[in-house]
Design a protein that fits this description.
The complex is a heterotrimer of chains A (330), B (342) and C (350). Chain A is an all-alpha fold. Chain A is 74% helix and 2% strand. In chain A, β2 and β3 form a beta hairpin. Chain C is built from 13 helices and twelve strands. The radius of gyration of chain C is 23 Å and the shape is elongated. Classes of the chains: A mainly alpha (330), B mainly alpha (342), C alpha/beta (350). Chains in contact: A-B, A-C, B-C.
Chain lengths: 330, 342, 350
């Protein structure tokens, strides 16, 4: 133990094989995505257009941000945050409330995000102090939180003249303004978890909580940071949601819960924790966001979306698991 | 908390009846029974005599009968350490396929058999992904959930447009409806069947060798494998069992409702697994839980829902309460020495 | 385990005994008229009645000294059927039903008929139930015609696309409203080519209709003049917003149904009008029938949408006309202050 200093947690051989696993996942996802694009272009040559790019990147915005939060939880060993859409809606509704009270935009955005963070803090308290498994905690708080949202907020109306609504339709460098936070945050997460000390602590806790604790990493603080973090990401998604959606309904979260988990799982994140590449997550979000648009170009109705996404997911996790078994052995 | 020590203690001095009651209530069975007594008591005091009328009991038991049947079959997969999140969606798919076949003129019994086979086929896909390929059960069955919901939607649209909506196939099968609505005195027959299933499953789990094997596989799969058990086969079969239960549930619902709505079973996974967890099962590890506990867990939820109904309470408040209830039960389980998270 | 069982039995026995000794909270005295309301749960096609309940019915019952009971089914079919049993248990004198899962209405009707409970159904017809509602088809046609007139004036009856934002789960209501709008549009602009009409599933919600419309617009890149009709305001606004999101060059115009997003001061600029149903005030009309039932002189059964017991008048409004009409929450408060009027009489511009 003496050759391992407590300030730098490094297990070299595991890192190397993890990197090559990530590379394999990224390559496979890229190939599949490109394949989808290619067959869509063969079907209709005008598939590659500015309009398609806009449609796909708009599809990516909300799911992409929620996926970062969910990926954060998964990679840190928190299993899943099933209440992340509640954080999203809390922020969206609070934005409406504060806007109606006349607050200025930057202030109301920050405070609304903080409200989401409080919800995440509540989750983390249940996990850390009551020591209840996070899957069950977030299952319960997601369910109860949804009920609470229904009671407190009937619906929230966003003013089409507000700067938030403008944000939802504007462009920056040729892509939707709302897409850039998603892209930058994903890249940021990638670098954070791969290269920064704090980031690697989260990975360590996710991969092996007991030895991390022995190394001196505080598990309690990690858990709190994890669930507050995921709820903040939920809140950021809530800002985008408010920008996109003039009428916010409390049940709207149900459209995002499963696709987000699908994106994280498809990207090769292990639900056991400690493994996952945010670059791969970016690509999986992109791939899953291209499917609905491609289906329309193929003339298929949108009801095929869920069917196809669901079975892609099963096939993907099966192949991925098989690959891991072959690489690592049982 | 060594059980040997407590045994010695009880032999050393006669425990007062208060101590005895405390001890019995602090066991896993005790918590459930205590919870049930509290909720029945609350209903008795708040709603009054109506709680115990035959019609009210019929209401409670009638509503929980089909979820109980589905849950008992799903409990096999929980016990073997695999959580099947797709059961709700499979209920909807089963109802849709069954209704679609019947509406197109195929005999009901034949339709039922075909439906069950198809659903078990999807259960086999679950099994293949999880057992053969080693995929994470949560991830794989989540994908199946999403996929089946989509499939149910697609199939529902192909129904002849005599239905009132494209998201439901209207189909009133008199014989099946009579069966699902039939009662012995005021107790629904479906509930009696479900209760028999509970006892039979309880017997299988605690008394037979097969039951012990399932528990072993769920409890410690490495040890089970070393002991020579066919762990892969047991897990695969348990997933087939849960899909079988879901398919039966879907067919029964078509009888009860007179239609196959694609939204059937939405959220049913939550209710069933919350009930099973209250009853001592865990969705995170296998080997624990018993069907009787699961039944009582579902009964607690059903009596609580009945209380909300009878008092005309806001149904959204009920959601909050179920969430809180789940947390309380799991917390108590941890206090008793169950699996804490770190 | 046997120790637990005996403890449990003792506990239940004690509590049950208490229940019989303690006087019951529910009155067993003279049978008052009991008005019951069974709602459909989550909003969407059902507007405010979905979540907040039915305050007008409650207030009306209170004023008449009736008992009141309300239950919701969260758009879950088994719950809707269970609620029918509840209504029977509650010994309701009459039921108002607004069921979002109409395919189980026959099963519900069987149970309620056995208990001889008269039913008033909102907007969704069922044989044997008094029908109270909008003529959805006429309302749809009126809205479609209004949009058609705008298309004629602005685009010479030549839109590039007509997006139909359906909510197929609403069944016949969707067919009448959205289909009606298409018919109304075609009555003013009969020469629009069939291929320009694009129906899609918007589920009556922005979160669904918006990405779906975005994808359709991307697949039809040369279309710039977009007309939108739909099941409700949310379905239409989602598509209008999608056009704005896809950027420059789009001219979009939509006409809604149910008026949920045309009132108040946060109206989408491309939503040119809607048809106010004043769903939240439906129950004001129901008392015509309910009072008659309470007096034991139940009116003749009129259960069809074509031959309704009570026909609610829709109020088509342009965005300009709707300025000044407050949102549903405010409207309900106003109506509660003066329940002898109807929302139509208070708010619909002459």
């Amino acid at each position: 133990m003496t050759h391992l200093s407590s300030s730098r947690f490094k297990v070299p051989s595991l890192r190397k094989s993890a990197d090559s696993e990530y590379l394999a996942t990224i390559l496979i996802l890229l190939v599949v995505w490109i394949f989808l694009v290619v067959i869509s272009v063969i079907n209709r040559s005008d598939f590659l257009s500015r309009a398609t790019l806009s449609a796909v990147t708009f599809n990516m915005c909300i799911i992409g941000i929620l996926a970062i939060g969910q990926g954060f939880v998964v990679i840190s060993g928190g299993i899943l945050d099933l209440s992340i859409t509640v954080s999203m809606l809390i922020t969206s509704f609070m934005i409406v409330v504060f806007y109606d009270l006349g607050w200025n935009t930057p202030l109301l955005i920050i405070v609304s995000l903080l409200c989401a963070g409080v919800f995440g803090l509540f989750n983390s308290i249940l996990v850390v102090w009551l020591r209840i498994n996070p899957l069950i905690v977030t299952l319960a708080t997601g369910f109860a939180g949804g009920g609470l949202l229904l009671i407190v907020f009937d619906r929230g109306l966003v003013d089409p003249k507000s700067s938030i609504a403008d944000f939802g339709t504007s462009y920056l460098f040729g892509l939707p303004t709302a897409w850039w936070p998603m892209a930058l945050l994903t890249i940021g997460a990638h670098f954070f978890f791969k290269y920064s000390r704090v980031g690697r602590h989260f990975l360590a806790v996710g991969g092996n909580p007991l030895s991390s604790k022995a190394m001196g990493i505080s598990l309690k603080r990690t858990r709190v940071a994890t669930f507050v973090g995921s709820s903040i990401f939920g809140g950021i998604a809530g800002i985008v949601f408010a920008g996109f959606t003039p009428e916010i309904r409390p049940n709207a979260g149900e459209y995002y819960t499963l696709p987000v988990i699908a994106a994280v799982v498809l990207a090769g994140f292990s639900l056991a924790g400690g493994r996952g590449s945010f670059l791969a997550l970016f690509i999986s979000v992109g791939f899953l966001s291209t499917i609905p648009t491609a289906l329309v170009f193929f003339g298929l109705e949108s009801i095929w979306q869920t069917f196809i996404q669901g079975f892609i997911l099963i096939i993907a996790v099966s192949i991925d698991a098989y690959r891991i078994v072959k690489v690592r052995g049982r | 908390m060594s059980t040997n020590l407590t045994k010695l203690a009880s032999h050393d001095h006669k425990m007062s009846s208060v101590e005895k009651m405390k001890k019995s209530l602090s066991g896993p069975g005790g918590t459930i029974v205590l919870g049930l007594s509290i909720i029945i008591g609350t209903s008795a005091l708040w709603v009054g005599k109506m709680t115990f009328t035959s019609f009210n009991i019929y209401l409670i038991l009638g509503y929980l009968a089909i979820p109980l049947i589905i849950g008992i079959f799903a409990s096999f997969s929980l016990l073997s350490g695999v959580v099947d999140l797709s059961i709700g969606a499979m209920v909807a798919l089963s109802a849709t396929i069954f209704a679609l076949l019947c509406v197109n003129g195929i005999n009901e019994w034949v339709s039922a058999v075909i439906t069950i086979i198809i659903c078990m086929g999807f259960g086999a896909i679950n099994g293949t992904a999880i057992v053969v390929f080693g995929a994470n059960p949560i991830a794989a069955t989540l994908g199946m959930l999403v996929g089946l919901r989509g499939l149910a939607r697609i199939l529902s649209r192909t129904a002849p447009s005599t239905s009132t909506s494209q998201d439901a196939i209207s189909l009133f099968i008199t014989g099946l409806n009579d069966f699902t609505e039939s009662q012995i005195s005021f107790i629904p027959v479906l509930f009696i069947i479900a209760l028999v299933l509970v006892f039979v499953t309880q017997g299988i789990i605690s008394l037979t060798r097969g039951g012990r094997h399932i528990r072993a596989v769920g409890g410690d799969i490495t040890a089970a494998r070393r002991a020579g058990l066919a762990t892969e086969r047991i897990k695969f079969l348990s997933l087939l069992a849960s899909s079988f239960g879901a398919s039966i549930g879907g067919i029964l619902y078509v009888g009860k409702l007179g239609s196959a709505p694609v939204t059937l079973g939405t959220g049913m996974e939550f209710t069933i697994y919350a009930a099973l967890m209250i009853g001592g099962y865990s969705i995170l590890r296998g080997g624990v839980g018993n069907p009787m506990g699961g039944f009582l867990g579902l009964l607690i939820i059903a009596v609580f829902a009945n209380l909300v109904d009878n008092k005309g309470l806001d149904i959204r408040a009920a959601d909050i309460f179920v969430g809180v209830l789940l947390l309380v039960i799991v917390y108590l389980d941890i206090r008793r020495g169950g699996d804490a998270f770190e | 385990m046997s120790q637990n069982k005996s403890t449990a039995i003792k506990t239940i026995a004690i509590i049950s005994a208490l229940a019989f000794i303690i006087p019951t909270t529910s009155a067993t005295a003279a049978p008052k008229f009991k008005l019951c309301v069974a709602l459909g749960g989550i909003p969407g096609i059902l507007g405010a009645l979905g979540t907040t309940g039915d305050p007008i019915a409650k207030a009306g019952a209170k004023k008449r000294g009736w008992d009141y009971y309300e239950v919701s089914n969260k758009l879950d079919a088994p719950t809707a059927v269970k609620n029918a049993d509840l209504i029977v248990q509650q010994k309701c004198s009459a039921l108002i039903q607004f069921n979002g899962r109409p395919e189980v209405n026959p099963t519900i009707a069987k149970k309620l008929a056995k208990a001889k409970i008269p039913v008033i159904t909102y907007d969704i017809a069922q044989p044997g139930w008094y029908f109270l509602g909008i003529d959805n088809l006429a309302a749809g046609k009126a809205g479609g015609a209004a949009l058609g007139k705008l298309i004629k004036d602005k685009w010479n009856c030549q839109p590039d696309l007509v997006l139909e934002s359906h909510g197929y789960g609403a069944g016949i209501v969707d067919a009448m409203r959205t289909g009606g709008m298409v018919d109304g549009l075609k009555s003013v602009c009969p020469d629009i080519d069939k291929s320009k009409f694009k129906p899609f599933e918007g589920n009556g919600e922005i979160a669904v209709s918006q990405p779906a419309a975005r994808d359709i617009l991307a697949a039809n890149p040369t279309a710039k003049k977009i007309a939108v009709v739909g099941l409700n305001d949310a379905g239409v606004v989602g598509a209008l917003l999608a056009a704005r999101q896809l950027g420059s060059g789009y001219e979009a115009m939509g006409w809604g149904q149910d008026g949920n997003l045309i009132a108040g001061d946060k109206v989408d600029p491309d939503l040119k009008g809607s048809v106010l149903y004043f769903l939240e005030g439906y129950s004001a009309y129901a008392f015509e029938v309910l009072d008659a039932i309470a007096k034991k002189s139940a009116p003749k059964m009129r259960d069809g949408a074509v031959n309704p017991a009570v026909l609610v008048k829709p109020c088509p409004v342009s965005a300009a006309q709707a300025q000044g009409i407050p949102i549903d929450k405010v409207r309900i408060e106003k109506l509660a202050q003066d329940p002898s009027k109807t929302l139509f009489s208070i708010y619909c511009p002459k």
